Model the fold of this input.
Amino acid sequence: MAIGPDLFEEIEQLKKERKAVILAHYYQDPDIQDVADFIGDSLQLAQAAQNTDAEVICFAGVHFMAETAKILNPDKKVVVPDLQASCSLAESCPPEAFAAFKARHPDAVVVSYINTTAAIKALSDVIVTSSNAERVVASFPPEQKIIFAPDRNLGAYLNQKLGRNMILWDGSCIVHELFSERKLVQLKVRYPDAEVLAHPECEEAVLRHADYIGSTSALLKRVKEGGAQRFIVATEPGIFHQMRKAAPEKELIEAPSNASCTTTGACNECPHMKRNTLEKVRDCLRELSPEVDVPEPLRSQALRPVLRMFELSRAA
Ligand code: 13P
Ligand code: SF4
Done:
């Protein structure tokens, strides 16, 4: 459906009236990215949420991202376009089961990916994102026992890269685990000059064929600054919008998925991220609802490991 200029104007007007800022993840629809005040990866968005002086944060992403913004800003209103926009990784780690898992390893520190609920953050010692996980994990002495949750693929990648033996929670991303190794190899044969970029949430079978592995912002930087002219990209295709803006002369190819929807081009899309629409962005700014809240003392307990992440991300 075509979106008229009225909707963009309406959102701009509401932003002013509400003293609101729109934060959007790279996986959002291009229209939402274009109306956002700030676009970024999970770490950049958490930092933007920490630094904003807006009274209202409209978070166009998924629930754990908005929840992190609220954990950092108890006095601001955090609204989302769709409260049902969840994340399979966050869902894969229920707090009761995780608390029992943690109790079985009393001498381990808990490093959790930001793709978790506030309840899991509250059970963690430090939070990481795909852009600082290596640095944070490497900051612990080699003999330190570590539980890493909830992404087994990111955890296995870090174990291999850093020579660690972290205990992994068995969660995964429904989008990144669907990339097909067999079809990727076929595509590489067809385009031998293409550089393969992959997000570390992909399975090892896919990561082993990647020339470059990184967070969404790192992959974007690689397209912008790397020497290749053609890229096969194994992550959610929402990121293509900024990649095309940054390097319009470069060719981007979606890494093929195992799902049988390749002709529609939609099989790599995150169904949670894609619940958000520009109309819903307008509506949540107008109604100041749905709102994301994190009650005390859970909020303060979840804040501690998030602040530790910021500290360790800054440390040289
Ligand atoms: P980034 O932090 O790399 O943007 O990843 C977020 C995410 O949900 C990837 O699926
Ligand atoms: Fe969660 Fe995967 Fe969607 Fe990222 S792409 S928000 S990890 S379900």
DSSP finds 15 helices and twelve strands in the chain. The chain has three domains: 5-85+273-287, 89-173+297-315, 181-254.
